[in-house]
Amino acid sequence: MNFHLPRTLGFLAAVCWGAVVGAVVEPMWTAKPGPWGDLEVRTVYLEPPESLLAVVAKPSTVTRWTFEQTTAHAVREILTKAKVPAAVIERLFSPVRLVTSGNSIVLLPEADDLTALSEESRSALYLELAKHAANEYQRDPVFILGGDVDDWMQGASLTPAQQALFRRLLWKRGGALVFSDVQALLGLAKTPEEVTAVFRSVTRVRSLVVELRLPLDTDRQAFIDYWSAGQTDAPRLAFVKAITQRRAKQSVDITHFLPSIIRQRAYTFPEMDLGLKGRFPDCHWTSLNFFNIVPKDVFLDTKLAAEHLLKDYVVVDAPYQFGDVLCFMDEGEGLHTCVHVADDIVLTKNGDSILAPWALMQLKDVDAIYRRSASTRVQGYRLKK
Q1: Does some domain include residue 69?
Q2: Which band of pLDDT confidence, cut at 50, 70 and 90, is reported for residue 191?
C-alpha cells in the first residue's frame, strides 16, 4: 500500500532528512574498558579569552632565524645539511638578510624563502633552530594534535590565504605535526582584527570532553573505588555514588569526578591575579595540588615541588590509578608532570604560560609535546596513604 504524506508534512520530512544527511560529524571515540566506566571522548578547542589576548604581546611580522654562539660559516653548513635550496641560502646571506649581533647570526627569511623549503628540510632546520632560546615558535610550536589539520582548521579564524600558507609550512617534530611560522601568517593580516584572529587561532589548545555513559555497565564498587582513589571522605564521592544508581540512558561529564580545585580549573586559562606570586601555575603546581582542598603555592618552586614528589609519593608502574602523577623523565631530568585520569586520558597544564590552560589530553599527545629523545620515559608516582 502506498503512503502519501500531506504536502506540508512531506516538505518538513525532506528538510529534516536533509539536515540529517548534511549533519557535521565530529571526532568521537570510546575509551578502553576499565573500572572508570564506559567513557565517550570528543575533542574541543579552547580559545584564550579576549582579556588575555589583549595583554599578551603579539610577535612582529618579521621572521627571524637566530643562531646563537656561532659563525656565519657554521650557519651556512647547518642550512646546507638541512637541504635548504642553494638559491635560498644565497638570498639569506645577502647583506640585507643577515645580521650579526654579538656572537649570534640572525637571518631574515621572507615568505618565498619559507615556502621554498620542503617539509623534510624545514623539519631538519627548525629542530636546529629550536636549540636556541630566541626562536620562540620553533621551541614551542603550534601542535596539530592527532595530525588532523582539517579538524584544527574547523574553528580557526584564518583567511583562505592564511589557511593555505599554514598548510604549506607544517613540519614534523618527532611524530608530531607542528607549525612555527606565526610571523608569516601575521604578515598576511590586513587589519588589527585579522591580527587578533590569527593570534587567537594559533593559541588555541585542543582538549578532550569526556562523558560517562549510563547506566553503569561495570562493577559498582570497583567504579567507586577507582574514582575515590582511596579517599573515602572525599567530597566528590557523594556524587560518584549517586550516579551509579541511575538506570536511564544518559551521559555525565567526568569533570564532576575531579577534585574541587581541578574541577574549577578544567578548561580554563589562568587569571591574571594567579601570577601575583611571581609566576603562573605550571604542570607541577597542578599535579601536586590535584587532591588538595586548598592549593599550595609552594609548588610554584620547582625544587620544592620535586622534593615533595620524592618524599610524599611512591613510585608506581602502569596500570595507573586515578590521581597518579606521571612524570616525563629524560636522563634523570624531570621534563613535565601530568595526572592520570582514566584509560590514556590525563589532566595537564603544559607550562606556566598564561596562554596554557588546564586541559584533558591523551597521554600520547602530551608525549608528542614533551618527548626529547628516544630515552624519554614516563614514571608514575602515587600519593602515600
Answers
A1: yes
A2: very high
Alpha-helical regions (H) of the chain? 7-21, 50-55, 72-81, 86-92, 111-115, 119-129, 136-139, 149-154, 160-168, 182-187, 192-202, 220-228, 237-243, 260-265, 283-288, 302-312, 363-370
Which candidate, 45, 35, 28, 47, places its Cα nearest to that of 341? 35
First to last CA, the chain: 71
Peptide bond into 215 cis (omega under 30): yes
Output the nine-digit C-alpha cell for 47. Answer: 580559545
Is 19 part of a structural domain of the chain? no
Q: Do 109 and 244 fall into the same domain? A: no
- Rounded CA separation 179/360 (Å): 22
Amino acid at 283: C
* Whole-number average pLDDT of the chain: 92
Q: Are residues 117 and 250 in the same domain?
A: no
pLDDT single digits (tens) 265-278: 999 999 988 887 78
Residues 169 and 69 in one domain: yes
* 320, amino acid identity: Y
How do residues 214-250 score in pLDDT, each as one tens digit? 999 889 999 999 999 988 888 899 999 999 999 999 9
141 and 273: one domain? no
What is the side-by-side strand order in the sheet with 205-214? 28-30, 39-46, 205-214, 250-253
Residue 62 to residue 184: CA distance in whole angstroms: 7
The whole model's pTM is what? 0.89
Q: Are strands 142-144 and 98-101 parallel, antiparallel or unpaired?
A: unpaired
What is the span of the domain harbouring residue 325?
A: 36-53+206-383
| 16 within domain boundaries | no
Q: What is the rounded CA–CA span in Å between residue 295 and residue 336?
A: 19
Coil/strand/helix, residue 164: helix
Q: Strands of 98-101's sheet, edge to edge?
A: 65-67, 104-107, 98-101
CB 349 within 8 A of CB 269: no
Q: How confident is the model at residue 24 (pLDDT cuts 50, 70, 90)?
A: low
Cis peptide before 319 (omega within 30 of 0): yes
d(CA 61, CA 123): 21
